[in-house]
Write a sequence for this structure.
């Protein structure tokens, strides 16, 4: 990646070599607010879905993805909602249509989490823990320096890390949805968001954060999941973590995820302060995987 973004030449060459002759001449589609009409008019082969997260229902992303797969297009999303609310339905629909439903950008930007486990057949994931919400991580760091929650949020927004409405981040919803997505896909256990014990960071004060850091046990918003019988016990909550531990060293917009499996007792991924292109890269990687799959079938 250059200073001005991705160099498009290698990508164009890769895609051209992969799908030459397999897709027809591109066509322009008329403006329409109906996704099914657009898919039909555009004769779309791939739909990129990037609407905002709807915690309660996963809409309208869920309907967009369903429409794409029913149309016969690959569906690529950065939205976690459809995974939590309808993963198995969408997975099975994609398989029935011979298409891909991919979502690598939903957790830790474009880091290959879901595709990693595609390369680890027969592995049983027993549990995981980590820091998956960069907005709260930045806010907690600023509050340790003495800023109030509102001031720390404004700074995170100015840095382009926090959204205008950061309620989902501060109250732990974003982290809970990511936790549910990982459980649903990687542990193959259906879980409702209300079954995840969730506590945000609103009750933490700058003084409490400074004291915890001074004592060697800084606060982090930690996601946890562990198999219990046929189910999974999961939580999202501020925790004091040992200053020398890997989680305590996660600062700024970085993320961390530690997996416990039956084969590998510990397998960790760290993403250090990703740039603006990280999430877009995840969708790009999913796109390349999709078109390579098409090329292999042609």
């Amino acid at each position: 990646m250059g200073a001005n973004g991705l160099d498009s030449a290698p990508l164009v060459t890769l895609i051209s070599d992969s799908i030459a002759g397999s897709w027809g001449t591109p066509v322009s589609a008329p403006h329409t607010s109906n996704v099914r009409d657009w898919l039909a008019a555009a004769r779309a082969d791939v739909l990129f879905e990037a609407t905002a997260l709807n915690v309660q229902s996963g809409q309208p992303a869920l309907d967009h993805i369903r429409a794409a797969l029913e149309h016969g297009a690959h569906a690529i999303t950065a939205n976690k909602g459809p995974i939590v609310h309808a993963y198995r339905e969408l997975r099975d629909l994609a398989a029935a249509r011979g298409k891909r439903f991919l979502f690598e950008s939903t957790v830790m930007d474009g880091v290959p989490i879901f595709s990693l486990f595609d390369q680890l057949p027969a592995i049983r994931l027993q549990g995981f823990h980590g820091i998956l919400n960069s907005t709260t991580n930045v806010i907690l760091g600023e509050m340790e320096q003495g800023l109030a929650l509102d001031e720390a949020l404004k700074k995170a927004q100015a840095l382009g890390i926090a959204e205008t409405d950061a309620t989902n981040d501060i109250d732990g919803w974003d982290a809970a949805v990511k936790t549910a997505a990982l459980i649903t896909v990687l542990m193959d256990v259906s879980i409702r968001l209300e079954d995840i014990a969730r506590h945000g960071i609103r009750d933490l004060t700058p003084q409490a954060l400074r004291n915890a850091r001074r004592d060697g046990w800084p606060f982090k918003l930690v996601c946890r999941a562990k198999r219990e019988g046929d189910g999974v016990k999961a939580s999202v909550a501020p925790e004091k973590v040992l200053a020398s531990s890997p989680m305590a060293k996660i600062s700024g917009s970085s993320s961390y995820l530690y997996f416990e499996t039956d084969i590998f007792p510990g397998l960790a991924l760290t993403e250090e302060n990703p740039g603006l292109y990280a999430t877009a890269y995840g969708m790009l990687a999913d796109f390349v995987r999709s078109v390579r799959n098409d090329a292999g079938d042609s």
In short: The longest helix spans residues 278-297. Confidence is low (pLDDT under 50) at residues 1-6, 11-23. The beta strands are 46-49, 74-77, 101-102, 125-131, 196-198, 219-228, 231-240, 255-261, 267-271. The first strand starts at residue 46 and ends at 49.
